[in-house]
Structures are given as C-alpha cells and as structure tokens.
Specification:
The chain is an alpha/beta fold and 414 residues long. The protein folds into three domains: 167 residues, Molybdenum Cofactor Biosythetic Enzyme, Chain A, CATH 3.40.980; 66 residues; 152 residues, Maf protein. It has 15 helices and 16 strands. The chain is elongated. The termini are far apart.
Length: 414
C-alpha cells in the first residue's frame, strides 16, 4: 500500500510549531507493514489543501491528513474534502450529539461553527474523538482512501490507534516488529562503525541510526521477532556500557530503574545546571518514592552552608574534583538520601580559561558512602552544555549504582 501523510497548518509551515504527528504516524504505520512514501506540509488555505490532496492522489493508495478540522475560520480541511468529493454533504447526528455533550459538560453551548465540525461527505464515515470536539473523517476520494484527523496529538493519536489502524491491516503484509536501543556517551560515527554492514539497505533486520539531544538511538525493524531479539542482544553487547537498559530512552530512566531495583533514594546538588537534573528525575512518574530533593548551589555560600563544602576547597576552584565530591557527600548528609549526584562547571558563554575552557564540567556521585568523580568537556553553546551535563551526570550516577566503569567520549583524562 502506497501511503502519504499530509500535515496542515500555517503554524507548521511558518515554523511556529513542530510537526510531531507525521513521524508518529510513520512509526505506527510501519508496524503493520505500510511504508509512507511522502510527507507534505501545507498551510491552511483551502486552495493549498485541495491542491495537495489532488497531487498526492496520483501515485498513492492512502492519504492520512492531520489538522484543520476545528471550528474556526482557518480550519478548512473539512471544506476542502467536501468540495473535492463534490457530492452531498450531511451532518453526522451521532458525531454532533457527542460534541454537543462534550461542550455541555464544559458549560459551553454549542454554536453553529462548532456543530458544523460534524459535517462530512454523505458517503464517508465520521471517526469518534474521545478527547476533543472535532471528529475525524474516513472515505474514498476517487480510488484513494483518505483519512482526516485533528491536529492536536492528544486527539489525533488515540483516534488513529482506536479507530483507524486496525482497519488498515492487510493480511498479505508482514507485521513489522520494532526495537530501539539508546545510548549516551558514544558518537554516531563510532556506533555506525560498530554496526558495520547492518546499516546496508535490504538488511534484515532493517537498521537505522538517529541522534537526538546527545543520545544515539539504533532502530531495528523485522518481521522475524526472534531474529530481531538476537540482533538487538548482539548490538547491545557491541556498544557496551553506554547502552541504556531495555525500555529506557534516556539516562534518567536508567537511574530511576536502578534506584528502584536496589531500593535506594537519591538527592541532587547542582551548580551549572540549576535544577535541571532534579527536573529530569522528577519527570518520571513515581519519583517521589526515590527522589528526596535537591540543592541548587549556584552561589559558593550555598555550597558551603547547605552542602558543607569546605571554604578551602572553594577557594582553590569550584569547578574541581574535590568540590563535586564534597557536594555529593554533602547532599547525602543533608537529605539522608542513599545516593547523590553533583555537578559544577562552566556552561558559558563566558568564564572559561586555558585549562578549564567553556564546557568543562566536573561530576560527582556518592552511593552508600562510595564517592566517584569525573571531568567531561562538552561542546556547543550554553543550552547544549547544560542539557548534555544532565545526561552525563545521570549516566555517571547510573554506572556507579550498577558498579560499572564506563567511558564517555567527552571524558577529560588527567
């Protein structure tokens, strides 16, 4: 089945909002053996929408559209499809009743603009929306099946899974199983070298690499679930300590899993990241069971008074091995946590020196009284240094919790 995805919205074309629906749809369709051949983004103009649909009609069997189904004047997908279909337009009374009831529960009287969201070509069906007022649409435009879904991801995705995906399954197509391996501390090129000819087109499993926020993700896909499992295990072994545990997408996930496995609690002591590490940990549901709290010790006086870092160490230089080790011990002592992670660094754009340039960060970890430290030199602007410091610090903590000696490509060796 030849498929295209069409995302609609001026905010997407103008770059104010990132299109996250198309990548998600591609991934979901891939699991049932449907490969998306083209992705297109157009603005809200009705002519643009109609031109895009008619051009995609040639060469595709399926077009999935997201966006433009709401009640405002700039939501024109429904009008475009009604115009292209050229037949009778009718109001779906079931869909109208559902949206009226939803608005009523919110204390809003449905006006005509809201009710017309239930309009559709007479030969098409509406797709129920449990999370919003705009139903989707499903029908045939000439010989091509067209499915239109709302733009908000929390509406589009549940509708796709609940009401659309199952109708697209073709018994003649092999179900594709997928697996992703994530790692931090390795660059993309070394990962590719370790994978070797597995990246060649036509390999089974199909293997690809993507890089996001300092992490490298290896994506595997195959119809043979046993082959997929064997290959995943082999790749994990090749990539070594930098590979995150199964089911973990980032180092914060790995730390959370390790703390729960070992029944430990953790605290944070942050200088250059100013609370980002604690934020990454508390993003995890259930973190209150193992995250005690943190100290954002930007000022030297806070390091001294709350974390018990000796003045002499601070005077020798706060971006140092001794200071982060003292910060980690102090965080455990002040909070009563079993473990702690600390950071002190130069995020920039100013403050670097010849021996400690911008991007230099010391990381300290303390686990049940055992203290470790390491220095990394992270590239890029301030925002990247701070973001990658979070991953580097949590990776170091995860290794310490698991008793692993790992290496990152940014390590500064004495």
């Amino acid at each position: 089945m030849r498929c295209a995805v069409l995302s609609i919205g001026d905010e997407l074309v103008q770059g104010r909002t990132q299109d996250t629906n198309a990548p998600w749809l591609i991934s979901r369709l891939d699991t049932i053996g449907i490969t998306v051949r083209e992705v297109r983004i157009v603005g809200d103009g009705i002519t643009d929408v109609m031109d895009a649909i008619t051009s995609l009609w040639d060469g595709h069997d399926l077009i999935i559209i997201t966006g433009g189904l709401g009640p405002t004047d700039d939501d024109r997908t429904r009008d475009a499809l009604n115009a292209l279909e050229g037949g009778d337009v009718e109001r779906d009374v079931v869909a109208e009743a559902a949206l009226v009831a939803r608005l009523d529960r919110a204390g809003v009287d449905a006006n005509e603009a809201q009710r017309r969201q239930a309009d559709r070509p007479a030969s098409w069906r509406s797709i129920a929306n449990a999370n919003g007022t705009a139903p989707g649409m499903d029908g045939m435009f000439k010989s091509v099946r067209v499915i239109a879904l709302p733009g908000p991801p929390d509406e589009c995705r549940p509708m796709m899974d609940a009401h659309v995906l199952g109708t697209l399954v073709d018994p003649a197509l092999s179900v594709q199983h997928q697996h992703e391996i994530s790692c931090f501390g390795l660059a993309e090129a070394p990962v590719a070298a370790l994978l070797g000819d597995r990246l060649q087109e036509g390999a089974d499993p199909a293997t690809g690499i993507r890089v996001s926020r300092g992490l490298v993700h290896v994506h595997l896909r195959s119809a043979d679930v046993e082959l997929l499992a064997r290959e995943a295990a082999l790749i994990r072994d090749r990539l070594g300590a930098c590979v995150l545990p199964e089911g973990c997408e980032c180092p914060a996930d790995a730390v959370a899993a390790s703390l729960q496995t070992h029944d430990l609690t953790v605290a944070t002591a942050e200088s250059c990241t100013g609370g980002l590490i604690g934020g990454a940990l508390t993003d995890r549901a259930g973190s209150s069971a193992w995250y005690v709290g943190g100290v954002q010790a930007y000022a030297n006086s806070v390091k001294q008074e709350l974390l018990d870092v000796p003045v002499a160490l601070i005077e020798e230089g706060v971006v140092s091995e001794d200071v982060v080790e003292a910060m980690a011990r102090g965080a455990c002592g002040a909070s009563g946590a079993d473990a702690a992670v600390s950071v002190s660094g130069i995020a920039g754009p100013d403050g670097g020196t010849a021996d400690k340039p911008v991007g230099t960060v010391w990381i300290g970890t303390c686990v049940c009284g055992s203290v470790r430290s390491r220095c990394v030199r992270l590239p890029g602007p301030r925002s990247r240094v701070r973001a990658w410091t979070v991953h580097a610090a949590l990776t170091a903590l995860w290794w310490h919790l698991e008793g692993v000696e790992g290496a990152m490509r940014w390590d500064v060796r004495s």
